[in-house]
Amino acid sequence: MPTSALLIQLTDLHLLADPAEPLGGCHNQPALDAVLADVRQRYPAPDGLVLTGDLVHDETPAGYQRLARQLAGLPCPIWAIPGNHDDPAAMKQYLTGIGLRGPVSIGAWQLHLLDSRVAGSAAGRLGQPQMAALLDALDRSPDTPALVACHHPAGPVGAGWLDAMRLADGDALLSQLAARPQVRALIGGHVHHSSDRRVLGCRQLTTPAVTRQFRPRSERPVMDHAHAPGYRVFRLGGNGELRTRVHRVPTARTALRGNPPVDKIGDKSRQGR
């Protein structure tokens, strides 16, 4: 039987050049420390990790360099795509050892990495050249199960203010993916909450942010204090079966508020910075 695989997804880290500086009252670096500590504890040997954008909020070299150092000790391939709060050129320069282009193989699957960033905009767009390249790659491997990763959701998530910032060409993308049954899901972030919806025949998954959460199904920006930061895990079956779950990390919520977790779960992830 073809090889199965375990894939971890982190999204919306929103790091700053100064790891001690809060953003909107939230301490994002220690929240990431706690999330990575949870990943290491639960999944010591994943087959891959994908970062789906908004990695360094202020797009500074110091932020990307610190992130690269922090991820360097993970025992698996790492891939990353930009969000609207990212600088693709800085990612290419400073995220050494991290894959930025796809498709890539993980187990019996392919992972397609998309760049939906539009300079100066919170919304996203793929554009025709990138869309055509994606569809060509999918059509060359029609029997290989696939995930497509994009920072911005292509379809609505049920929150009006966030739906106004989705992919401008999202409907076209979803229709094309739905016509290619090897695509099991479109995965991403941007919305700072978890969702699992079928839109235009395609399964669309969003993942909780590593930082603050936004309340689902809200027509305006409202902080969700009921849910802790988290991450998503994919079990990619050798037979093409997709299983996924979200883990919330209460120690990350504590760290986010500027209070160190009582068990100091994030300490190991600070080593080597």
UniProtKB/TrEMBL annotation:
It comes from the Bacteria. SUPFAM superfamilies: Metallo-dependent phosphatases (SSF56300). InterPro entries: Calcineurin-like_PHP, CNP_phosphodiesterase-III, Metallo-depent_PP-like. Pfam families: Metallophos. The keyword Iron applies. Residues 264-273 have a biased composition (Basic and acidic residues). Residues 253-273 are annotated as: Disordered. Residues 8-193 form the Calcineurin-like phosphoesterase domain. Coiled coil: none annotated. Keywords: Hydrolase, Iron, Metal-binding. Belongs to the cyclic nucleotide phosphodiesterase class-III family. This is Metallophosphoesterase. The lineage of its organism: Bacteria, Pseudomonadati, Pseudomonadota, Gammaproteobacteria, Salinisphaerales.
